[in-house]
Design a protein that fits this description.
The protein has six helices and two strands; from the N terminus they run ββαααααα. The chain is α+β, with helices and mostly antiparallel strands and 111 residues long. The mean pLDDT is 82.
Length: 111
């Protein structure tokens, strides 16, 4: 799973952060548990999931900002101000979907 986040100056991409994967830590999951409706994430369309994550972003900005900076090593607060919310939501959706899949595989006895 490749994660990507573009940083913009006006409408031009000036920098792109990429990472191949990211595993959520349990402490982060604890922080997010009240913000995430796993049933909606599991059954929703990609558009519905992105909207849900956008709403979660607004509620949990203090959780997501450090998480994004951990996912995209070197990302600064100033750069984050110049990233599109839709791209942030997409990256977070991918991380959450990957983590949910890992949890499901573990609960089914698959590792």
């Amino acid at each position: 799973m490749e994660l990507k986040l573009n940083i913009y100056k006006k409408k031009e991409v000036i920098k792109t952060y990429k990472t191949e994967t990211y595993d959520l830590m349990f402490g982060t999951v604890e922080d997010l548990i009240d913000l995430i409706d796993l049933d909606k994430l599991d059954k929703g369309t990609d558009a519905e999931i992105i909207k849900l994550v956008g709403n979660m972003l607004m509620k949990g900005i203090n959780i997501f900002k450090p998480l994004l900076k951990d996912i995209f090593e070197g990302l600064t607060d100033d750069e984050l101000k110049n990233a599109k919310v839709s791209e942030i939501a997409t990256a977070l959706v991918e991380v959450v979907k990957f983590s949910v899949l890992q949890i499901k595989q573990g609960s089914n006895g698959k590792n």
